[in-house]
Write a structure and sequence with these properties.
This protein is α+β, with helices and mostly antiparallel strands. The chain is built from twelve helices and 14 strands. Strands 1, 2, 3, 4, 5, 6, 7, 8, 9, 10, 11, 12, 13 and 14 form a 14-stranded mixed β-sheet that branches. The longest helix has 20 residues.
Length: 377
């Protein structure tokens, strides 16, 4: 057989695994690479706190001696217990348009799952909901984001051919920033402040943000995202990693916190300058000069596009206008910064609560991605 599958057993092979994605898409103008160092830390079992409750293996496919594909296969034990399922996940999957290669990769993934008594294969999914997930099925001619997977149009064709079915879809919106604030949002925000004793809060430094609200931010994520597809609660160790990874690069003008009279966090909106072009220019590497492109995009000459990272409101406040309070402040800052548009990033197509918040925006639903599933006989 001309296709050989090799299990990743060492750091050198893991680097090959990560680099394959960059090589496959090096001529694609829409692909946004992961930061190499972050990808390595996510996949290394001694670096990622998710391995407290996940198992995983990684495989490379060689066609006539040339690297032609990759796939990660994993099991999230907490997600299985939470959802009452017995599923393996696949992710970090890339391949040339070759039936032999694709069949060999997924046969390996299915074998891995069966050997562990798992009865379903689903993906693309990561270890947790904060990893890149979902295969692109619409929007192949649109630039990706730092948080999302890009793949060629032939990928979903192979998934359908292999007997995979839709498990869940995410939609993404490009939102235009209005030229002036919405009077309705201002009125609702003022009412919410008076009626519920809530207020927006701005931290003076990133260290203050991390110290006062770092854990509250991700505790709120755990609470609000709990019902969503594929989500598992972040552990304290994971929260520590996320605080160290993301809060040092957050522009405080791009985060809106809503607190109650006791300064407890009840809602938040977090965005970041789009790093899509910076990551493309750096080819996903910090060295030798990739750091400059990222530094420039974050602090020197930021782009006029933002990515929403997180929007969350405590369940008991979700129908009380708190979203208006968050967006009223955020829009004010966006307009002052000259922001033109915002990528919503993936939202489950069934998450009507969050999608209703975009009703006042001029918007375009420009991408759709899918998690597939297959029952294993």
């Amino acid at each position: 057989m001309s296709v050989t599958i090799v299990k990743v057993e060492n750091n050198r092979q893991l680097k090959r695994f990560v680099k394959f994605g960059y090589e496959l898409y090096k001529e694609c103008p829409y692909y946004v690479p992961e930061l190499f160092e972050d990808a390595m830390n996510t996949l290394r079992k001694d670096r990622n706190a998710a391995f407290e409750f996940c198992d995983a293996d990684y495989f490379l496919a060689y066609k006539d001696g040339v690297l032609a594909g990759r796939i990660a296969v994993l099991v999230n034990k907490v997600a299985n217990e939470k959802c009452g399922q017995n599923a393996a996940r696949f992710g970090w999957v890339d391949f040339i348009d070759d039936k032999e290669v694709v069949d060999a990769l997924f046969a390996t993934a299915e074998k891995w799952a069966r050997e562990r008594g798992l009865t379903e294969l689903q993906g693309p999914l990561g270890f947790t909901d904060l990893d890149r997930e979902g295969m692109l099925i619409e929007g192949f001619d649109r630039l990706g984001t730092m948080s999302t997977i890009y793949n060629y149009p032939y990928y979903p064709e192979h998934m359908n051919r292999l007997g995979f079915a839709k498990d869940a879809d995410w939609v993404e919106f490009l939102l235009k920033i209005p030229e002036k604030k919405w009077e309705k949002a201002e009125r609702v925000a003022a009412i919410v402040e008076r009626k519920f004793g809530l207020r927006t809060l701005r931290c003076k430094s990133r260290s203050e943000l991390a110290k006062r609200y770092g854990y509250q931010l991700f505790a709120l994520v755990n609470e609000c995202y709990a019902p969503l597809y594929g989500f598992t609660p972040l552990t304290d160790k994971q929260i520590d990693q996320l605080i160290k990874m993301y809060l040092p690069v957050i522009d405080l003008r791009l985060i809106s916190l809503v607190v109650d009279k006791d300064d407890n966090l009840v809602g938040m909106g977090v965005s970041i300058y789009s790093l899509a072009e910076a990551l493309r220019k750096s080819r996903g590497r910090m060295l030798p000069f990739g750091w400059w492109h990222l530094l420039k995009a974050l602090f020197v000459k930021p782009p006029k596009r933002l990515d929403f990272l997180l929007v969350a409101v405590k369940p008991e406040y979700q129908s009380k206008g708190v979203f208006a309070l968050i967006f009223n402040e955020m829009l004010d800052n966006f307009m002052k910064l000259g922001i033109v548009d915002v990528e919503s990033n993936p939202e489950l197509e069934t998450n009507h609560k969050i999608q209703s918040q975009w009703s006042e925006f001029e918007k375009e639903q420009h991408k759709r991605r899918r998690a597939f599933k297959k029952e294993l006989c």
